[in-house]
Design goal:
disordered N terminus; transmembrane; 7 strands; alpha+beta; HATPase_C_sf; two-stranded antiparallel ribbon; Heat Shock Protein 90
Length: about 350
């Protein structure tokens, strides 16, 4: 299927795509190719002619690019056909006007205007721009294919982490029913509220919501572990309204409970530190660690899930690292602040 057929459903606008590195590079290459071919066919002094023609073609290209940047900034996203028309009309208009203006140059004024020169330039410009737009349509379709595939994977990862969260919470509730029925009733009410928040969240929510969700989970676990579970929070100088991926801190803390507190007879302390470092949000979770103790199976599933989601959201800008010092295991997540604010939430 050709890109032209798919273009009606394009999510990434053509105008914005023209302003990307790939779009600018394609435009520069196209402009220089036209200048080179035109110079070869002219039969005049090659280097002088190439320099002048290159100046003309690149001037046209960048004037048009400046206009497209202005339009993209002032006007909201349009449908593909409208953006296609704006782009083609912009290139043709600039080429037409500059082809007239260069004939009034102080170096070689042409009177009357050579309309054949103007029409030839416009025809060449139109042909090259159509090729450029065809290339950009293919590029945008590829972007959308990658974006849709990443979105589908993200949905799958999100769907996988939520049942995992529910499974562990239900296990806790089941144990409480035998050990402490009164606490089980309170935990069930807390879990109901927690499930509502966890499953209502989209792909992202505020840092404050994520912290609240994590605290709710710890409240449930506290019913089971009692004095064995102690949590120290350190949240300093952070923007609680900053958007973060949903279920990014809670699985880290859950991992710390399952593999750090549960295997320890005497329990231990989980330290949760959230700090803002310039344009990065640093989330650190530290828990007790005993290499000889046996914990539930599945260790690393949550970390791998989070690591993959971070890669989809932020690429190489976000990291998840683990380290072990003596009897403490630490997980650190670094997120670029503000990166999720431009991503619309969907469920």
């Amino acid at each position: 299927m050709t890109p032209w057929v798919n273009s009606s459903t394009i999510d990434h606008g053509l105008l914005k795509a023209m302003l990307t590195e790939r779009g600018i590079l394609a435009m520069i290459i196209g402009s220089q190719a036209v200048a080179f071919i035109y110079t070869l066919s002219s039969g005049k002094d090659f280097w002088l002619s190439l320099g002048l023609v290159s100046l003309f073609t690149h001037a046209n290209a960048f004037i048009t690019l400046a206009f497209i940047a202005l339009v993209a900034r002032l006007i909201a996203a349009l449908n593909f056909k409208t953006e296609l028309g704006i782009t083609l009309l912009s290139f043709q208009s600039v080429c037409f006007i500059t082809s007239i203006l260069v004939q009034y140059s102080v170096f070689s004024p042409v009177i009357p205007i050579d309309w054949q020169f103007v029409l030839n330039n416009s025809a060449i410009c139109g042909f090259v721009v159509i090729l450029l737009l065809h290339f950009m349509a293919i590029y945008i379709d590829n972007l959308n294919t990658i974006a849709h595939a990443a979105n589908a994977e993200l949905e799958a990862l999100q769907a996988r982490i939520r049942p995992h969260f529910l499974h562990n919470a239900l296990n806790t509730l089941a144990e409480l029913c035998h050990e402490n029925p009164d606490a089980a009733e309170e935990a069930a009410l807390t879990m109901a509220k927690l499930m509502q928040v966890a499953f209502a969240s989209g792909k992202r929510h505020s840092l404050a919501q994520e912290i609240s969700l994590t605290r709710g989970y710890l409240t449930i676990e506290k019913y089971r572990f009692e004095h064995r579970l102690n949590v120290q929070w350190q949240v300093e100088g952070v923007d609680l309204n900053a958007m973060v991926p949903a279920l990014i801190i809670q699985p880290l803390v859950e991992n710390a409970v399952v593999h750090g507190i549960e295997p320890q007879v005497g329990g231990g302390v989980i330290e949760v530190s959230i700090r803002q470092n310039e344009h990065k949000l640093e989330i650190n979770v530290t828990n007790p660690f005993n290499a000889h103790s046996k914990s539930r199976t599945g260790q690393g599933i949550a970390l791998n899930n989070i690591r993959r989601r971070l890669l989809i959201y932020f690429g190489s800008e976000a990291t998840l690292n683990t380290s072990q010092k003596s009897v403490r295991f630490s997980t650190t997540v670094m997120l670029p602040l503000g990166a999720l604010n431009e991503i619309p939430d969907s469920r």
